[in-house]
Records
---
Amino acid sequence: MTVTRVQEGAMLTLIPHGRIDTVTAPIFEAETDDLSGITELIMDFSDIAYISSAGLRVILKSHKRMMRQGKMKLVNVGESVMEVLVLTGMTDILTIE
């Protein structure tokens, strides 16, 4: 798994590539560790076909932090990942476009 970072001022877009599972979630989490100065976080899931509970934890941790300093949204979420988000109730918490 790799993660592309695109920063424009205080807006950061993270684009993970591959699967977010128990093995790769720490890589994704490392990209969210330094969000100082970021007021808008976008997670672009256009290249994610699978996410496990470990990946959901990273999303929730990032969301909690961004609620204190700005906003966060998920974009380009595929059908299989959306199904996981719906089943876990995360669609009630997150902004998904």
---
Amino acid sequence: MSKINDLYSQIIKNMGVPGLSIPLSAVKFYRKKEPLPDIVTAYIPSGLTLTSCQAVKQASLGDCVCLTKETIGCIAAAITFGLVDENQKEPMLGSRVYTDIMKDQSKNKEKFTPPCPSDFTKGIVYACKAADKPDFALFGSEDSGRYNSVDTAKKAIKDMMSIKPADTDAVFLYSKEFDEMDLEPDVIVLSVRPVELARLIQAYQYITGKRVNSSMGGLRVVNSDLIVRPYLTGQINISTYCLGARLIAQYDADRLGIGMPFKDFQIIAQGMEESRTGFPFHLYPGSDESVKEKI
């Protein structure tokens, strides 16, 4: 059993609700100067691309995924992860999940040119209506875009954390059961209900006394808010899932995300055990609702 699974089992056990399950995904970054193990490259998708939201969800279901510049399906996530330079003026080649949606709704599919990374960085993609770029819309001619102006989009993008310079070779997303190598993750992402989030924060504070601050936006939530922000800051972050997570990866309506460095996952597991009698989670209203739904 992997170390992650041991810690996860410790957390679930001390919640005291039989059958409870919280989706978990582990994330490991491989920068260009680091060797990429063969066992990791074995999980590079063949013949398809996946968004970061899809990959995180697949990892939580037990399917490991290795995202590279060639296999990531979302240009914004490629920027966030440092797989591509944010100012690159050439489109990323090949079919991509996110830009394929644009192409499918475009009035002239044959002449469609996908946006390049710099179009995202400049705010043009997210303010497609204001920028008069109908080909960058996701929902047809009436699409308002994600922001009301290019300036507003640029302001929002400025606060979306990303790895700079773009020196990432691969991002490995794997399940708690993965034990094929002694691998310590950089970040753990949990998909939680509010009642579960409350108990995790209580466990963390029991050990540390520290408050948990949340920085969230409406876009790039999984890749930027839940993975890269904890990776770069070394701090826990909480955020609701974004447009891509909800519509492309189909995250459940009652879930939000918490991302944390692995050290904090270890602290939470310890806190769950030591504070079990002071925070009787099994008595919290709704604590067993997700279990009842499965029966």
---
Amino acid sequence: MDLLRGSIAQARAALACGDVTSAALTAAVVAAARRVQPTINAFLRIDEARALDAAQRLDDERRAAREADGGLPPLHGIPMAHKDMFYRAGRASSGGSRILGEQVQTVTSTALAALDRAGAVEFGVLGMSEFALGVTGHNVHFGDVCNPWNPVHVTGGSSSGSAASVAACVDFAALGSDTGASVRVPAACNGVVGIKTSFGAVSRAGAMPLSQSLDTIGVLARTVEDCAEVFQVIAGHDPADPPTRQWPVVQGAVVQRRGDLAGVRVGVAANFGHDACGGEVAAAMQASLDALRARGAVLVDVVMPDPEALNRLATVVLQAEPAALHRHWIEQRPQDYAPQVLARLRAGLEIPAVRYIEALRARSPFLERMRDEVFAHCDVLHAPVLSFPVPTRAETDVGGGPGMAEMLASFAQWTRPINYLGLPALALPAGFAAGLPVGLQLIGPMFSEPMLFAIGSVYQDEIGFTGWRAPLAG
């Protein structure tokens, strides 16, 4: 088989039996990335020489391990590229911006260090929305990342390069971040799997900050199993990021295989996305629910607690915290921001402190309502990621003009409340609308990632999903 279109497990098996070396696999990935780069612009940098050197060292380790009958870490020899917001000591990480790209970092992010220990080969860095403050994938500094299903359309953001590279089969899996939508929307737009992790599940140390109350680190991959495997590598407590905690999933996050969903209750909230869907998107949502029910899941009607209020509260936090973080640059270097990013940050400076504190204080009561009104009646909540087909880059290129707030709200209205609550959500492909992918999200209680992966895996099997191949994948 063509390993570039396969899973991490398939690539690992080929490496283990000697069908391919890590150096050869890395060279093939780099060549494929260079082939698609002129069309999708997913990469900010491809580090071919450094990656091949690292892959050769791993091949030497593999030979030594075979001779010694020793084991190897789970991602040994697997090439990956990641969103350009994960710092590596001695290099600059742009964060999709002109400003940050000037700063050589002195630390390596905890997530990258975990992947290094697991044996992954980093071969490049991926494009993203400026400072992770964009939900479409536009970037005035480095050019838009384009959708590999149709480059005229958006990839979603801010983890745009992560999703596009995985969908184009030039990256086995990629790290992303999700502060309001930034893993799930790109996953949905590109037909890949993405995990928005629980707040505190994965360390953010050494990753570009945006909102200390909402930032989470996630993974984008072509299958649920690949997503779960990378998640297990990076999850866990890190003293450098105090909100993280050690929790049982660290010992068993890889999908626990189950044949059906008997006994699983899937909540469907008409007021949280379903009533907003129409046409092919509504049909895709219904088909995904039918697939879950075909494997034994019970569909339960629930009501999401006040989605409009949740969105308002999330917006306050997502405006105030980045504005405080960027205040010095806003005052000293406003010309170096894209108009939309600058407009959003300046709006955050106008948020009164009382309003911000009230938004933070409202979170616990809403979590109690989620427990009592939603998760008391279901195990997971099913919702669309976007309730409309993937739009074009031209349609959404509104800059900082009068259409900005409405456009941003439409993209994030079914995702942003989940960040505000700190809950995990697994984005899964659910079909097509207007020829481009449609995505659903399964939302669970805090630290329920293993359950989400298990349910997602059964759903994946039911629909026969083994990783869609975008047209540019060949």
